[in-house]
């Protein structure tokens, strides 16, 4: 057996959180096989597997990826997806089921229908399993320090770092479960996370030992709020930031950067006592630190990223614009002044933004991508225009310095797409899912990250539409689910 | 002593001058011996000189003797494959133990004739403990080799865990010369020594203790050690390298970064020549799905077997993937190095499980009276193709066999019979129409699904079951004999030797068994 286990977290197939990281960049940084030069003739449909009879459609869900796991059946690369009451782990190369975990819980009393189970793969570094020992029992004795050259079970030498890794799952009754990622087995008893049945639980996120979840849309009897549970404490204390009457449009969950939680709370009127828009909260106890208002009303999480030593947020602005916020002072002294705001990019419709992504190319240029489920406004000129897009498109901006200010410069707009999902990017290519609708099945596109030029378009492989579906990318494969509960895999395959 | 070494050196030099590649290998003298791992340099496991045991009387096999030794185990390891040699009036069974003890036992009586503790020679002191997990133990790991009968003075070569090669008198265990440093550090993991034309070869795997994974050659004539470069993925066919009838050295490599231009040939068959104290890559074959094999740790991990066919050497090997490859020595992989003479369908391991399924260790080959060429292999887990005849489901595995046939002018491996179920079958041995198969009983799981991480050696030992010896009809796989519950312990890659009506092997608990029929 080899000893080349890649350091966990750096493997090219990792995608542990919605949009890949706590900042929701949507950028697969470890990708090497996909590139603008490798798509033609190689990128193709690989497999599909039906997981549920019908995908629940009321909330965003995105497959997660966990590579290089080991169980008694060998090494496995998993794609994991949360269904209505079951988590599915599928071999990401073969498209075969590795394990399923079903949860029994009372349905939410709300009227929003079933929500996909919220899932999150344990980040590579830590999990405090010991904190979950039964009350009254002593912690396990610590093993003696290792002598030089010695190896502890699951340690790095020889067999690699094969210790347990966890999968967090929030069920509709508000319980936080923890499964062994490689087998789906229960690792420990569930703990209460959300105080009452959750209704819709949106994307989970994690920073250190604090796990975050969002409830929204007034479903169930759980209030709309951001919740945080401290997994390092034996008591599992839960903090919350209630938004009262403000419904949270945070489909991917909260955005985390540098120990601060950034929550998009919509466009309701802001006050210091009840701030909304983009609000910055302290990491563990969720106290308000700063805010910007008013933001746009779109249902998406901000993207956090670093640009020229500045920690920035990209977020929807009003009237179909996009804006940049400096995390040092989200809206300036008046909380109304963004670092930069574009003109209206999108013709105002019911919904003007789908999702965003950020990446940096090999030249060091930082890019911002956004999916637009509506026609673009004619006022913005795109240096690279890839055709009429009456239904929707992906748009790309470069970040630049102009007159001492950081600005978003329009770069390209994509071909036409029907309800484009939040874009993701990997090694210079953009993976864009045109979700379609009841009249048109979904289509997957691969675009050149610098020009938006179409490099690949799926054919008739996808038989129905997708809805609120995220795309994950890892190790040259892209994954998503469609409305009928089918998990699809496209990519550059390898001979088995 | 020096004179004899010079004489051997002269022979080696003559061989080199004559061109190693064209020199026919001398077959072992027609005596009931077992002088090297898997019987001969080609690693075919075919004891050609057995006359005592046959299909007619194999049912009369019985335990002739068993001898308890003081061998100290290392991890899961106890003994390496026995050697059997005739010395003076006695026939000796020689076994190297995991803690650098060598035991020579009277093959007729089971009494100890001599025992030798190999002195530690490395500059670094021996470290306490048994090593690191079940992969890198601190054990002596290479089956020794003894000079074949009829090739001059006989020497027993034993590579100790300190990386030094000891040169012993096989008759009494005395050191015939100072130990030679072969591996750069102690506790490298070497595999079965192979001796051809006065050069001792071995391979190393798993990079244990920082010893590079490479092919090593020790030239007994000038005492020079040569190793291949660059370091490879783990070279860990348990019987070490196989050497063809033309002197070409073959081995398989495990997973590792692959870059053919840089000489990094992971998950491949490699062929080397040795001339003028230089190891040179001659040819290689890489399966076209090597990327997948690497991704799922489905290494090429067996010692390949070499046999003459169509007037030249053919090579068969396999690995954890559960597929078998037939290679033509004329061109192992064709122009692209990815085209085998025959690449089988997936014979087993549809689960892609690197731990307990597929093929491990080494293979065997023989030719029956009708001229049919057979290949045999140990297999883990159920098979995915129909073998006929077979003897029921094999959830744990067993022995699978193939006939080498031709179709449309192309040689191929046609599935033949499959044995009944066996727990961790050792490489089989063929003797006089009988296949000897040892179900080692080792628990080979690695991932601990209930506690996380990998099993410790202790946990694997606890989960292992006693070994069982079987004799099977080599043409049909029908069971002729089973040892039942006479063996009380398991074994880890210890192999078995067959010579002179005796079947000899050692188990984890330090016991050496001899089953047989008294001539």
Short characterization:
By secondary structure, chain A is mainly beta. Helices cover 0% and strands 39% of the residues of chain A. Chain A has strands at 27-28, 43-50, 64-71, 74-82, 86-91, 97-102, 118-121, 166-170, 175-180, 186-192, 200-207, 210-216, 225-230, 238-242, 255-257, 260-264, 278-282, 288-292, 303-307, 310-316, 322-326, 340-341, 355-360, 366-372, 384-385, 393-402, 405-413, 424-426, 429-434, 443-448, 454-457, 472-474, 477-481, 486-492.
SSE map:
The complex is a heterodimer of chains A (496) and B (519).
Chain A: E1 27-28, E2 43-50, E3 64-71, E4 74-82, E5 86-91, E6 97-102, E7 118-121, E8 166-170, E9 175-180, E10 186-192, E11 200-207, E12 210-216, E13 225-230, E14 238-242, E15 255-257, E16 260-264, E17 278-282, E18 288-292, E19 303-307, E20 310-316, E21 322-326, E22 340-341, E23 355-360, E24 366-372, E25 384-385, E26 393-402, E27 405-413, E28 424-426, E29 429-434, E30 443-448, E31 454-457, E32 472-474, E33 477-481, E34 486-492
Parallel strand pairs in A: 1-28, 25-27
Antiparallel strand pairs in A: 2-34, 3-4, 4-5, 5-6, 7-8, 8-9, 9-10, 11-12, 12-13, 13-14, 15-16, 16-17, 17-18, 19-20, 20-21, 21-22, 23-24, 24-26, 26-27, 28-29, 29-30, 30-31, 32-33, 33-34
Chain B: H1 2-18, E1 46-47, E2 62-68, E3 83-87, E4 90-96, E5 101-106, E6 112-117, E7 131-132, E8 136-137, E9 145-146, E10 156-159, E11 164-168, E12 175-181, E13 194-196, E14 199-203, E15 215-219, E16 224-227, E17 242-243, E18 249-252, E19 269-275, E20 278-285, H2 290-295, E21 302-303, E22 305-309, E23 312-318, E24 324-328, E25 342-343, E26 361-362, E27 364-367, E28 373-380, E29 397-407, E30 410-418, E31 429-431, E32 434-439, H3 457-463, E33 468-473, E34 479-482, E35 497-499, E36 502-506, E37 511-516
Parallel strand pairs in B: 1-31, 21-26
Antiparallel strand pairs in B: 2-37, 3-4, 4-5, 5-6, 7-8, 9-10, 10-11, 11-12, 13-14, 14-15, 15-16, 17-18, 18-19, 19-20, 22-23, 23-24, 24-25, 27-28, 28-29, 29-30, 31-32, 32-33, 33-34, 35-36, 36-37
């Amino acid at each position: 057996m080899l000893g080349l286990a890649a350091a966990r977290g750096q493997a090219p197939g990792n995608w542990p959180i919605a949009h890949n990281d706590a900042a929701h960049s949507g950028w697969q940084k470890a990708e090497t096989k996909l590139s603008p030069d490798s798509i033609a003739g190689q990128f193709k449909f690989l497999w599909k597997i039906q997981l549920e009879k019908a995908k629940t459609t009321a909330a965003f869900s995105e497959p997660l990826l966990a590579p290089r796991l080991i169980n008694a059946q060998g090494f496995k690369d998993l794609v994991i997806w949360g269904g209505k009451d079951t988590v599915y782990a599928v071999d990401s190369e073969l498209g075969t089921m590795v394990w399923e975990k079903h949860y029994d819980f009372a349905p939410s009393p709300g009227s929003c229908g079933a929500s996909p189970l919220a899932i999150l793969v344990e980040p590579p570094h830590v999990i405090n399993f010991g904190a979950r020992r039964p009350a009254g029992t002593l912690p396990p004795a610590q093993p003696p320090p290792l002598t030089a050259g010695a190896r502890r079970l699951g340690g790095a030498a020889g067999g690699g770092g094969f210790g347990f890794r966890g999968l967090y799952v929030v069920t509709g009754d508000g319980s936080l479960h923890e499964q062994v990622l490689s087998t789906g087995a229960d690792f420990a008893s569930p703990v209460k996370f959300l105080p009452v049945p959750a209704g819709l639980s949106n994307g989970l996120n994690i920073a250190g030992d604090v796990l975050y979840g969002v409830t929204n849309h007034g479903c169930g009897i759980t209030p709309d709020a951001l919740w945080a549970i401290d997994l390092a404490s034996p008591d599992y204390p839960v903090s919350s930031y209630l938004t009262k009457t403000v419904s949270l449009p945070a489909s991917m969950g909260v955005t985390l950067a540098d120990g601060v939680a950034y929550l998009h709370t919509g466009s309701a009127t802001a006050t210091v006592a009840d701030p909304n828009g983009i609000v910055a909260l302290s990491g563990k106890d969720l106290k308000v630190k700063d805010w910007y208002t008013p933001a746009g009303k779109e249902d998406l999480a901000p993207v956090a990223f670093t640009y020229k030593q500045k920690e920035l947020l990209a977020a929807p602005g009003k009237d179909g614009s996009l804006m940049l916020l400096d995390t040092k002072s989200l809206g300036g002294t008046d909380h109304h002044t963004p670092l930069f705001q574009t003109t209206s990019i999108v013709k105002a419709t019911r919904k003007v933004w789908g999702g965003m992504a950020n990446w940096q190319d090999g030249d060091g240029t930082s890019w911002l991508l956004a999916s637009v489920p509506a026609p673009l406004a004619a006022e913005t000129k795109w240096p690279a225009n890839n055709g009429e897009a009456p239904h929707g498109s992906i748009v790309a901006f470069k970040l630049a310095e102009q007159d001492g200010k950081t600005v978003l410069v329009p770069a390209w707009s994509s071909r036409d797409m029907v309800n484009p999902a939040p874009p993701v990017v990997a090694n210079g290519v953009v993976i864009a899912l045109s979700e379609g609708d009841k009249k048109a099945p979904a289509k997957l596109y691969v675009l050149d990250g610098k020009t938006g030029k179409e490099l690949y378009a799926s054919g008739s492989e996808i038989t129905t539409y997708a809805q609120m579906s995220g795309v994950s990318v890892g190790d040259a494969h892209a994954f998503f689910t469609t409305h009928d509960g089918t998990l699809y895999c496209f990519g550059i395959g390898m001979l088995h | 002593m020096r004179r004899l070494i010079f004489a051997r050196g002269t022979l080696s030099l003559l061989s080199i001058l004559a061109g190693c590649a064209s020199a026919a290998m001398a077959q072992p003298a027609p005596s009931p011996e077992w002088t090297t791992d898997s019987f001969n340099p080609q690693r075919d496991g075919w004891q050609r000189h057995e006359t005592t045991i046959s299909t007619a009387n194999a049912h009369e096999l019985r335990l002739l003797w068993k001898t308890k030794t003081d061998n100290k185990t290392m991890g899961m390891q106890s003994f390496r494959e026995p050697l059997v040699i005739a010395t003076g009036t006695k026939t000796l069974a020689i076994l190297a133990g995991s803690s650098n003890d060598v035991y020579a036992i009277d093959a007729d009586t089971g009494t100890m004739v001599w025992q030798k503790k190999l002195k530690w020679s490395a500059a670094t002191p021996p470290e306490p403990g048994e090593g690191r997990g079940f992969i890198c133990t601190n054990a002596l790991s290479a089956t020794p080799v003894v000079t074949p009968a009829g090739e001059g003075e006989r020497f027993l070569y034993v590579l100790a865990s300190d990386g030094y090669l000891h040169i012993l008198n096989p008759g009494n265990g005395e050191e015939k010369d100072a130990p030679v440093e072969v591996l750069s550090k102690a506790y490298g993991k070497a595999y079965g020594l192979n001796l051809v034309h006065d050069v001792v070869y071995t391979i190393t795997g798993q990079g244990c203790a920082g010893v590079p994974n490479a092919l090593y050659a020790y030239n007994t004539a000038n005492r020079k050690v040569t190793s291949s470069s660059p370091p490879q993925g783990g070279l860990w066919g348990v019987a070490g390298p196989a050497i063809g009838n033309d002197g070409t050295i073959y081995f398989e490599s495990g997973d590792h970064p692959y870059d053919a231009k840089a000489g990094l040939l992971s998950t491949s068959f490699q062929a080397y020549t040795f001339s003028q104290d230089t190891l040179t890559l001659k040819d290689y074959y890489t399966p076209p799905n090597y990327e997948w094999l690497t991704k799922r740790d489905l290494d090429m991990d067996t010692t390949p077997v070499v046999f003459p066919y169509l007037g030249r050497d053919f090579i068969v090997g396999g690995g954890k993937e559960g597929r078998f490859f037939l290679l033509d020595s004329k061109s192992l992989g064709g122009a692209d190095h990815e085209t085998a003479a025959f690449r089988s369908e997936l014979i087993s391991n549809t689960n892609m499980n690197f731990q307990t399924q597929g093929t491990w260790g080494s293979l065997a080959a023989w030719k029956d009276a009708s001229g049919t060429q057979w290949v045999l292999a140990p297999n883990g887990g159920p098979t995915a193709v129909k073998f006929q005849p077979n003897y029921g489901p094999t959830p744990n595995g067993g022995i699978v066999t193939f006939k080498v046939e031709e179709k449309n002018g192309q040689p191929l491996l046609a599935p033949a019979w499959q044995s009944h179920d066996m727990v961790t079958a050792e490489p089989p041995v063929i003797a006089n129409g009988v296949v000897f198969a040892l179900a080692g009983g080792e628990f080979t799981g690695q991932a601990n699904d209930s506690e996380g991480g990998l099993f410790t050696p202790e946990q694997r030992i606890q989960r292992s079951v006693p070994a069982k010896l079987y004799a099977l009809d080599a043409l049909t796989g029908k069971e002729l004999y089973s040892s039942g519950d006479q063996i009380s312990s398991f074994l880890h890659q210890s192999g078995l030797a067959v010579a002179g009506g005796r079947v000899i092997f050692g188990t984890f608990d330090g016991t050496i068994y001899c089953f047989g029929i008294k001539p």
